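Form 12-C: Joint structure prediction
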Amino acid sequence: MNTIRTRTQIIERLRAAKLRPTRQRLALARLLFERGDRHVTAEQLHADVIAAGMKVSLATVYNNLHQFTRAGLLREVVVDSGRSYFDTNTASHFHFFHEATGRLEDIPIDDLVLGALPQLPENTSVKRVDVIIRIR
Amino acid sequence: MNTIRTRTQIIERLRAAKLRPTRQRLALARLLFERGDRHVTAEQLHADVIAAGMKVSLATVYNNLHQFTRAGLLREVVVDSGRSYFDTNTASHFHFFHEATGRLEDIPIDDLVLGALPQLPENTSVKRVDVIIRIR
DNA sequence: ATAGCTGCAAATGCTTTGCAAGGCC
DNA sequence: GGCCTTGCAAAGCATTTGCAGCTAT
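Section 2 - Result
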């Protein structure tokens, strides 16, 4: 669960990630981090930022989503081939995916417990475990 | 685990799915179902069928992968935005995804046990549970 | 000043589609 | 014969990239 943050806190967050708080980047970061958990596609975020009256190109939205992800501020979730979601909740947790609407929703971590992980192949380590419950 | 099947069995399997055993479809079906579990992308299967000396277009590979999936002979697995895998194992099971190589591997079902499912949102039912352990 | 950032448009990569020709029952 | 299927090429879609001009520090 992300805390609601002020503009100033977000600027600090960006600086900590070594990302300049440019006008465009700040607008995107505020849309993403000022309120609680969000799951957005690049298109959706672009629509949001345009709706908020700011001018940001789609390419810049993509660039920034990836920079945020690299910085650990976002997590990419793949539910659908051909579309990426970005989740502001970077803690370990799982998802419901509403097939009808394309909406992605967090599952509270305690609600779904994974048993012991299976034996991994030789010389490998777990990077991440993705659990998606597809519902309709 | 899929049984090894003869050409004749595969033809029957196609007929049962109301799919004509055309030269191209049969070639694809044999590559997919004659040996055990396979995880392929359209590109890979296309390369396989060409390597086997048959002429099948990529469009036809896509068409057939989707027809097989609709018929319940394959299951589509999404691991990577922009690329679809098709799994000949249609039973409930989970996957390792090797990030370095792009290879997908089954996890024996007993090796990973899911606890109780979380409470679902109102008026929804589970279509499928996908578990992908990303390793490197 | 300068390294980083933005925006456009073009390019990419995978996938789908339109449609004429061919093949199975 | 009639309907399904195929193959090509074109279109589609989400995403990435090249690059000239802009901006934060």
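Section 3 - Comments
Chain A has a mean pLDDT of 93. The interface with chain B takes residues 76, 78-84, 96, 98-99, 105, 107-108, 111-121, 124-136 of chain A (CB under 8 Å).
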